[in-house]
């Protein structure tokens, strides 16, 4: 079994910063692309950031220049540094990853359970 567990969410004032973490555990063979998504109340889940195994990153315009995704392959962990936070960044943040379990030859898509981020004064 494989699990993704997010942490680091909380309540922050506008303009503040948060760093989210997402650690993968279990019978992991390798992890390819890792991503962050978010879902605000009443809205569809939206893509926030992506990082490939080689470290290439991409962001939508809504967070570009404010959010930074990174990963520690030795720890099977992906991070999301969020700066200059706005009320519209309020959402549940989810990580996902393409993971190959040990003794497997194929990759599957795994989601974490989410962590709440609230931006409010």
Summary of the model, kept short:
With 121 residues, the protein is an all-beta fold.
- The helix content is under 10%
Shape summary: elongated
Could you list the spans in which at least 5 consecutive residues all have pLDDT below 50?
none
Strand content: over 45%
Head-to-tail CA distance between termini: 40 Å
Structural class: mainly beta
- Largest β-sheet summary: 7 strands, mixed
Helical stretch tally: 0
Rg on CA atoms, Å: 14 Å
Mean pLDDT, nearest integer?
97
Tell me what the structure shows.
- The chain has 121 residues and is mainly β.
- The protein is built from no helices and eleven strands.
- The strands form two sheets. Strands 2, 4, 5, 6, 9, 10 and 11 form a seven-stranded mixed β-sheet that branches. Strands 1-3-8-7 form a four-stranded antiparallel β-sheet, with no helix packed on it.
- It is elongated.
- The mean pLDDT is 97.
Topology:
Elements: E1 2-7, E2 10-12, E3 18-26, E4 28-39, E5 46-51, E6 57-58, E7 67-72, E8 77-82, E9 91-101, E10 107-111, E11 115-119
Parallel strand pairs: 2-11
Antiparallel strand pairs: 1-3, 3-8, 4-5, 4-9, 5-6, 7-8, 9-10, 9-11
